[in-house]
Automatic annotation (TrEMBL):
Listed SMART domains: CYCc (SM00044)
Name recorded for this polypeptide: guanylate cyclase
Top-level class of the enzyme under EC nomenclature: lyase
Compartment annotation: Membrane
Amino acid sequence: LKEKTEDLKRERRLAEDLLHQMLPKSVAKQLRKCQKVEAENYDQVTIFFSDIVGFTSIAASCTPLQVVEMLNNLYVCFDSRIESYDVYKVETIGDAYMVVSGLPERNGSKHADEIAKMSLDLVAAVRQVVIPHMPMGRLQLRAGIHTGPCVAGVVGYKMPRYCLFGDTVNTASRMESTSLPQKIHISSATYDALLTDDAYEIEPRGEIEVKGKGRMKTYWLLGNKNYSVQN
């Protein structure tokens, strides 16, 4: 009976660990208790999007299994690195990678700094990712960041997902889609949030036309004066 009880506890821990990989702990706890998870409003968060430059053409030259292997190598690398920062991985869609800081646990005004350091790390790290079927090839990342309010909540009953909603999500996505290879494109809101401690090397990009947003003044995040990315 004691052995069976220990086995049951072990299996329960494994199930909980798996659930916590898919949903925030606070949300998972409510779902286990069959409680309704209310959507929550956050005044300020910072959202990061990235994708792989030329992914469509890369994928077209690979078998489906090779694409899966390539993305798995990339995301295993990214997933291990973001553990060093106060961020939450929201989801991956194909070659797109979405991360947020400032929710589900609020962290005051640290969210922009955490995402900025993480993004510099990932842009450096992607060059080290090996493509199994293209050993001489190297992937390039295109990244975008925006800071602002959003709403987060659980959507669906079967395979529930923790999703973010609001214009901040759309703007962060636009920052990524208008970025350039191996560049981190940030909005004016993120620029203002990073100015507080004067730790970042930032270069003005100027005004650009952003679909659905009109003309926006944006910047390139180049580095952190006090932080060295280790590969």
